[in-house]
């Protein structure tokens, strides 16, 4: 028989290998994002700029054009990966995501209202999107109290998603063509023209929620055993669920406020990370790294896959996510998620 210490040692070794591999993949994606473009740069040129040197044009390309976009892709992708992993673990549903639960829908509705009705953009648009996501989430938490809270949360989220989508459609039909085009770009999800202040705000939010993630990572595996088992082991399922949903809501609402409702990253990242670390794992850190690498690579594809055509990154993640979901449903791998 295999000793418990051997099992734990093998599990830690597997986690270490997975984390190192995902970090390497993320670094490769980041390096490619900084080097590839209409003004190609070599590794030495990029490194020189990052260390404070380089030509003025190289400094502008790296520091003002590519680096903030890359930083936003990494922050948004990791935030969505963690949000999806939290929701899937809390609800014990591998298909749970902020899109399904209406969190993105609330942010989208508020942002479209600000853009089309009030005619406001910039920080005001981001603030509206953040408030809309938080309001939708507060409604979900209020409805999902009591027994079978997980199932009630999913059903309420589906209802909120459809309601928000209906109102967004109504606003789009009443708007002028130019406003509608701008709203469509935001609705698809885009990382273009990312200013540094958005990167700083999102990084600050990450630092604020990180102390909440650490205790959640320890308690979620117990909660995944079932509410009765978790209660018997001394946990408080209601408190853990509320804290997890609040963290997922904050991460989703902030990313949606700055980058738009980028689809499928929150669904795909945990689905890719869990088999790597072992089924039954919460895999918060691997999900964050998978989400970051996935969004950075998707942004590269969106910019340079078609000659002279730059697409919003949401087009690529939506296409990849749809194919990935269909593949899961068509193979036996989907049963093991």
Automatic annotation (TrEMBL):
GO cellular component terms given for this protein: plasma membrane
Q: What is its main location?
A: membrane
Can you cite a GO biological process for this protein? siderophore-iron import into cell
Keywords, A to Z, come to: Cell membrane, Membrane, Transmembrane, Transmembrane helix, Transport
**UniProt topology in membrane:** Multi-pass membrane protein
Task: Kindly indicate where the leader peptide sits in this chain.
Answer: none
Q: Name one GO molecular function term.
A: transmembrane transporter activity
Residue ranges of the TM segments: 70-91, 100-118, 124-144, 153-175, 195-214, 245-272, 278-297, 309-330
Q: Which CDD domains match?
A: TM_ABC_iron-siderophores_like
SUPFAM superfamilies documented for this protein = ABC transporter involved in vitamin B12 uptake, BtuC
Cited InterPro entries = ABC_BtuC-like (IPR037294), ABC_transptr_permease_BtuC (IPR000522)
Q: Where in the cell is it found?
A: Cell membrane
PANTHER family membership: FERRIC ENTEROBACTIN TRANSPORT SYSTEM PERMEASE PROTEIN, FERRIC ENTEROBACTIN TRANSPORT SYSTEM PERMEASE PROTEIN FEPG
- Family the entry assigns: Belongs to the binding-protein-dependent transport system permease family. FecCD subfamily.
**Descriptive protein name:** ABC transporter permease
Natural source organism: Microbacterium aurantiacum
């Amino acid at each position: 028989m295999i000793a418990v210490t051997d099992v734990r040692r093998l599990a830690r070794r597997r986690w270490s290998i997975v984390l190192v591999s995902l970090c390497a993949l993320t670094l490769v994606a980041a390096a490619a994002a900084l080097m590839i473009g209409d003004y190609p740069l070599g590794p030495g040129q990029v490194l020189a700029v990052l260390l404070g040197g380089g030509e003025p044009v190289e400094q502008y390309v790296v520091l003002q054009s590519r680096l903030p976009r890359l930083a936003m892709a990494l922050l948004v992708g990791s935030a969505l990966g963690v949000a999806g992993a939290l929701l899937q673990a809390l609800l014990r549903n591998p298909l749970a995501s902020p899109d399904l639960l209406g969190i993105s829908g609330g942010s989208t509705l508020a942002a479209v209202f600000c853009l089309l009705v009030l005619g406001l953009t910039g920080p005001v648009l981001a603030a509206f999107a953040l408030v809309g996501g938080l309001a939708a989430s507060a409604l979900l938490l209020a409805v999902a109290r009591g027994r079978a809270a997980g199932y009630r949360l999913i059903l309420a989220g589906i209802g909120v998603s459809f309601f928000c989508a209906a109102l967004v459609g109504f606003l789009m039909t009443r708007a002028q063509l130019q406003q509608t085009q701008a709203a469509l770009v935001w609705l698809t999800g885009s990382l273009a023209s990312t200013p540094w202040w958005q990167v700083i705000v999102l990084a600050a939010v990450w630092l604020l929620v990180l102390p909440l993630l650490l205790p959640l990572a320890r308690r979620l595996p117990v909660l995944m055993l079932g509410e009765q088992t978790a209660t018997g082991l001394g946990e408080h399922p209601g408190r853990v669920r509320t804290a997890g949903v609040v963290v997922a809501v904050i991460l989703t609402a902030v990313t949606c406020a700055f980058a738009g409702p980028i689809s499928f990253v929150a669904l795909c990242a945990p689905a890719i990370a869990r088999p790597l670390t072992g089924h039954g794992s919460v895999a918060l850190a691997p999900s964050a790294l998978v989400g970051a690498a996935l969004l950075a690579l998707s942004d590269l594809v969106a910019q340079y896959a078609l000659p002279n055509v730059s697409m919003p990154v949401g087009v690529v993640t939506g296409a990849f996510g749809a194919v990935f979901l269909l593949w899961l449903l068509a193979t036996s791998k989907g049963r093991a998620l």
